[in-house]
Prior knowledge:
2 domains; Serine Threonine Protein Phosphatase 5, Tetratricopeptide repeat; alpha+beta; 10 strands; two-stranded antiparallel sheet; four-stranded mixed beta sheet
Amino acid sequence: MLPGPNYVYKCPNCGNFLTNRSLLSGNTFGARRYSDGKVIAPMFPAIPDLTKCKKCNTIFWLSRLKEIGTYDCGKKQKSAWPDADDAGFLGIDDYFRAIDSGIAENKDMELFIRRSIWWTYNDRHRDGKKMFVDENDEKRWKENCEKLISLLDQSELDLRIMTAELKRNLGDFKGCLDIITSIDDENYYWLKTKIINECEQINRWVICF
């Protein structure tokens, strides 16, 4: 992994400075791939785009802002912005707040946020934690999964597979199997076998491939 420069931005609401890292190169050695499509790669870490200001809690897309400066990785204290906050990923409550705020200006943006909600819930399972805090938490997770399914283009194979996984998570094993067994691409045979086995085991939750 070769880090690139750190980019500096201003919160569009209060003007607070925040920085976001970049990568010049990376690799997927040691990466863990999951059934929900998430890949966790130590040598190719994800970089946030949708984030929030730690001072005023405003949520915004970094890709919609123009950077105001850069500094080399590891040299923050020698830069003009030593006290700038580091941009971070949102939590579940903030992702739902982003949806409610109307920050998703199109279908792709909404899909990105709703998939992020799904992945962040699944992170609880990946980390060995309880999936839901209470019944209301489970209810909004379910509603998000259903709305995410409605956004997925079933003509695209990867999105059909995502739909199947969402249905498995929701406990609709027949719906999952109907989609998975209809895939005849031999490159996905290994995936079909694993997902079919999880359905037969009545397992709803994300698995590591």
